[in-house]
Amino acid sequence: MPRPNFLLIVTDQQRADHLGCYGNPIVRTPNIDGIAARGWRSEAFYVASAICMPNRATLMTGRMPSVHGVRHNGINLDLDATTFPEVLRAHGYRTALIGKSHLQNSTDVPPVVAPPDERAGPQSPPYALREARHRRRDAPYDQELRRRWLDDPAHGLRYPYYGFDDVKLCLGHGDAVEGDYGRWLRERLPGADGMRGPAGSAPAPEFNAPQAWRTRIPEELYPTSYVGQTTSEWLSAHAAGNPGQPFFVQCSFPDPHHPFTPPGRYWTMYDPADIPLPASFRPADRHSPPHLIHLQNERDFGTRVANTQAVFACDEREARESTALTYGMVAMIDDAVGGVLATLERAGLAENTVIVFISDHGDFMGDHQLMLKGPLHYRGVTRTPFIWYDPAARRDGASNAELAGTVDIASTVLDRAGLEPFNGIQGQSLLPLIAGGAGPRTALVIEEEGQRVSMGFPARVRLRTLLTDRYRLGIYDGVPWGELYDLDADPDEMVNRWSDPAYSSIRGDLACELSAALIALSETSPLPTQLA
């Protein structure tokens, strides 16, 4: 049997329930649904962290953020980190990434090192971040910086890039994406920069949602089209030039994500009036955690900030409009996926290509009257799709609700490729679960490290969450309260049982389980040496 190829399709900020195969009755995703109909899907798949860079680094390494070091956005993944594409490449696979990478900082704002406290006397050198030491060594941690791509026409990636032989990079979101895409766009559309962003947008007075504008970029030149078309071109070229060589290609869409800018017909494809509000779209009450109350108060008192990456509380109209525009972005991705699948067939690659569909993380999309993402681990932002189709082992629409997560993807792909996991990998292969057997775990940990003080916390938010098949426990650093939800009795996570006497013993048991899980997820590599 020839070694399998792999096509990993990644969307950015997409909830599991924003696909037809996950029960959404409105958004139309026939191509992705078709993958699920031939394959297998997880109904309980969760992120390692609900933030781009930490979770994408976990995808690549099979290690948790606290271990691989990308604890929050802005910290580069160590160039010496072992990634599963690197292992595939070492065993003869051709590897490619088309679209969003986000394994290095792209915002031109470097990680800051807390300055020494002059009152404390002399400081030892290790106060500096390892990130700063990398820069002092002149290591190439500037490869995804947006400004470098704009200012230097010769700037590009150094290969192999985290195990990838080829990369066509997308930096950013909406219609303002840069990297290889930005150069591609300007070659095809003179004056493109004047057609992007809020200043270049077309009038759309019917929409009022924050971070939503009607782009003038044509559908065929929008980033989603670029990723789909470039992936197809790569597959065709590989089939023609490297017949018989196995490949791993990551087709990584920057959408769906704010800003909400679906182009052309996708802007009007879904009517906000047809979008139902989530069941949890209710004002906070005495059963709500303090940070949810804080966010809703900011909206109600007129002090919210809704033009950044941070979570904010929305009103009914904003929730409907943002969801309708997101559905437009998802529908466009589905069309692009259809084109990639057609290329697999034409190139004669479909019969030996495992297709995996995932998302980086979700979006509140009106859950609890919130938008975007943030350190509130409601399942709308932590639960994502996971679809696995193996033409050599079809599952024909089977699914399972046992816990699995981003940390398991690397181990699963390597297992299917017939390769051993590398030292220090923390995920488990899902192949036994996909085949109908037992899952790898009964509980799952989600990590989050904030970058700033927000939501009424006294310091930056640090959160650890434990998920079981029935409960979600969340413990925050530096505050006397936490979160506990009985997901069987309260699937919409409306009643925080943290202080409920009836749940006190359950809270204690879960806290002990979380402690044991955190110990199990601590670093174990390199292996200890044997004592004499």
General description of the model:
- The protein is of the alpha/beta class.
- It has a single domain, classed as Alkaline Phosphatase, subunit A.
- The protein has 14 helices and 17 strands.
- The strands form four sheets. The protein has a nine-stranded mixed β-sheet with strand order 6-5-4-7-1-9-11-2-12, sandwiched between helices. Strands 14-15-16-17 form a four-stranded antiparallel β-sheet, with helices on one face. It has a two-stranded parallel ribbon with strand order 3-13.
- Helix 8 (223-241) packs parallel to helix 10 (316-346).
- The chain is globular, with a radius of gyration of 23 Å.
- Residues 113-136 have low confidence and may be disordered.
Features:
nine-stranded mixed beta sheet; 14 helices; 27% helix; alpha/beta; globular; 532 residues; four-stranded antiparallel beta sheet; 17 strands; Alkaline Phosphatase, subunit A
The level of helicity is 25-40%
Please tell me the total number of domains.
Answer: 1
> What is the CATH superfamily label?
Alkaline Phosphatase, subunit A
Number of continuous helical runs: 14
Specify the structural class: alpha/beta
Question: Which residue ranges are poorly predicted, with pLDDT under 50 across at least 5 consecutive positions?
Answer: 113-136
Question: Order of strands side by side in the largest beta sheet?
Answer: 6-5-4-7-1-9-11-2-12
The Cα radius of gyration reads: 23 Å
Whole-number mean pLDDT: 94
Major sheet = 9 strands, mixed
